[in-house]
Design brief:
The complex is a heterodimer of chains A (323) and B (298).
Chain A lengths: L3 H17 L18 H28 L2 E3 L5 E3 L3 H6 L3 H17 L2 H12 L7 H13 L2 H11 L6 H8 L11 H29 L3 H9 L4 H29 L3 H6 L7 H4 L2 H11 L3 H29 L4
Antiparallel strand pairs in A: 1-2
Chain B lengths: L5 H9 L7 H10 L1 H25 L3 H4 L14 H9 L2 H32 L5 H13 L3 H14 L5 H5 L6 H12 L4 H8 L4 H12 L1 H17 L2 H6 L8 H11 L4 H21 L1 H11 L4
Helix pairs in contact in B: 3-16, 5-16, 6-10, 6-13, 7-10, 11-12, 13-17, 15-16
The chains are: A mainly alpha (323), B mainly alpha (298).
Chain lengths: 323, 298
Amino acid sequence: MATTPLASRSVARSATKVRRGASPSGPGRRRGTAGTSPWWALLFVGPMALGLGAFYLWPTVRVFLLSFTESGPFGGGTFVGLDNYVELFQDPDVLGALRNTFVYAAIALLGIPISIAIAVLLNTPGLRLRGMYRTLYFIPVVTMPAAVGLVWRMIYNGEYGILNQFLGVFGIEGQSWLTNPNTALIAITAVGIWGGLGTSVVIFLAGLQGIPESLTEAASLDGAGPIRRFFSITMPMLSPSIFFVSVIGIIGSLQVFDLIYMMLGRNNPALPDIRTIVFLFYEAGFIQNDRGYAAAIAIVLFVIILALTGMQFWLQKKWVHYE
Amino acid sequence: MSETSTETRAIALASAPRGGDDSAERRQIFRHWPVYLTLTLGAIVMTFPFVWQFFTAFKTYDVSVKVPPVLFPDPWTLENFVEVFDTLPFAQMFANSVAMTAGRTVGQVVLCTMAGYAFARIAFPGRQVVFVLFLSVLMVPSQLFILPQFEIMQALGWVNTLQALIVPGIFSAFGTFLMRQFFMSLPKELEEAARLDGASVWMTFWKVMVPLAKPGIVALSVFTVLWSWNDLLWPLVINSDPDKMPLSVGLATLVSVHAVDYPLLMAGSLMATIPMLVTFMILQRQFIQGIAFSGLKG
């Protein structure tokens, strides 16, 4: 079975395939098993094609159309052209939410060096209990974010939360982390990093184990110390994994919702200051029932994700090494 | 399949039987003490919240707000669990979560395996166009679909039903892509031999290819199970009737009623996380490989 770096590479490769589109060397020209009637394909692909068409492809078109309408009180929409978009970019709530989402995504990138460090430690030759450590680091990945959000909400509590008690031991004055607009976003991002660490550690560990020992040995023979070896060999060899984790990580960060929703109560004074873009989408679409506006917010999110991902694919040429 | 590669080697290394020179080994461990120390501190950070969650669930409210906080409940109480069931139709929510997870997973495994196989192995007119359309869905963030999906559910009269939780989730471009990649990596000789022996397309798929694709199917299942069990936004907008909610939305309801009764909230969140935690403990390798393979968290 493909190990992770392979998986990540195949994602990168498939993206090039999409770009190549219908060129003759594209996916699977003459790849069919000889003698299979194309009618079988209808049976095999038909149900999925219908479902994806109805629940995913049509909605993509529909949400574009919705974003040009204003929702009436009884659900009907009237065409308003680009009004929603014009309003959106003057709406301080939207601009604030965009800023918060970017801040969240930027801080969350700190998870990458942390998980590389953990993976390098886990990769120490002769290390015992490697499997146990990996399992423990992975637990937050399999636990429901809604539940985890509540646990951290209790830990962060300003009056009797355990975090403040812990900081008190070191003489650090605690505070009400989640109601203070200056700390709430950072506190939530920390939980986001904590929750995603297990996945990236496993990906980096697989990447590290794919680096041939002969390379590092040759470098040591040439007199390279551990730090030099790390930056000249390990990092370049690991760069496809780093690229993969950062692409997936940024896409996920831009869509953060569960943690914000669960960690901040509806009456939290910090809420207006740290809403993210998906949170605003939820409020506009399903609390205020302003479907057209919510659709426009979703489209903006889409464009941002597309732009940032495209930018990363463009930048990767400068720093990602594929053998 | 080289499943025996790095993953297994790591596990084999970690659990290798003690042997050789014991004192040399002890020296080795001693030399690495900073590594063990750092990893252990990290492991505490990763798991302590769950320890705290567990003990708090058995505390009385008064003990839970003590300053300085105490780790162990005194007295131990099951009151919080009882109250969760009094406040919410928790058993029903649990059943809904199970149904949502099972329905989506079974549906995706069947449909994605079939579609993935066709894209990998059956030549049909328009295959590239359809495949590119499928891939384009992968690029779109899931929030984009929610408003129109909500409209479709309204039109079907499915708001506040179990099928609203399940049906949109059984179709997946990602799963189809994953399975296609997997089938492409398999050798063609076996199925060609089966076809020459007179097996039908369906028999070849079902008896030869599906068994070979098991690792891919496991990865897809793990991913879908996790994503379904933890899903919050879609169930939150589509089902507002407590009897039709999954556990994630149940917890959101619980916190809106009892904002600071943490023992109660921990009892609820404990019951919501334990099933997935136990499944993970039993199927650790499948989980870790599945998530690493699909590279995503739900």
